[in-house]
Amino acid sequence: MPDMRPPGGIAGGFPAIPPGGLLFGLGVDVTEAARIRRLLEHLPRAYERLFSAQERAYCERFSDPWSHYAARFAAKEAVGKALGIGIIGFVWRDIEVLSGGKPLIALHGDVAEISRRLGVTRVEVTLSHTGGMAYAVAAALKEEEAHG
Question: Which residue(s) pair with 141 in the sheet?
Fold first, then answer.
């Protein structure tokens, strides 16, 4: 079958998986904003345990930050699932959602090391929140392995 991708790796104006890119894993999560609000209000130290300073600063820019916190929490769970490490056993701040337009995932510490050992070269994520719910889908991608 001929390669139908337009030149430059852009399909319909959106970034395409690079030629030879492989999907390693996919993760999804849904979180109630009210649940995250209750957690953070009743356990204030959870702010620093769950979210980086940059994530907290982003969320606190909004008059109602809870849906933004919930979306980041959901993203961290979705990334853990996409990497196959689940949702326990890692430092939550080791998965960071960088904002400012399209959300980007930065991996740190043990999660970055696990990702490297798995051959995952990047993680893509999409977030949404509406009606008191936050949604996240994450895809762990790796470059095609060279065949000798």
Answer: 23, 122
Q: Which residues lie across from 128 on neighbouring strands?
A: 135
Domains in the chain, ordered, with CATH?
23-142 (3.90.470.20)
**Number of residues that this document lists for the chain:** 148
Instruction: Say how far apart CA 79 and CA 101 lie, in whole Å.
Output: 19
Mean of pLDDT values over 125-141: 96
pLDDT on residue 123: 95
- What lies within 8 Å, CB to CB, of 80 at 6+ separation is 27, 86, 87, 90, 95, 111
* List of residues 6+ apart from 91 with CB closer than 8 A: 109, 110, 111
Q: To 10 degrees, what angle do helices 33-42 and 66-82 make?
A: 100
pLDDT of 138 strictly over 90 = yes
Average pLDDT over residues 80-108: 92
**Predicted local distance difference test score (pLDDT) of residue 18:** 58
Pairing of strands 133-142, 22-32: antiparallel
Closest by alpha carbon to 99, among 53, 34, 48?
53
Which one-letter DSSP state was computed for residue 132?
T
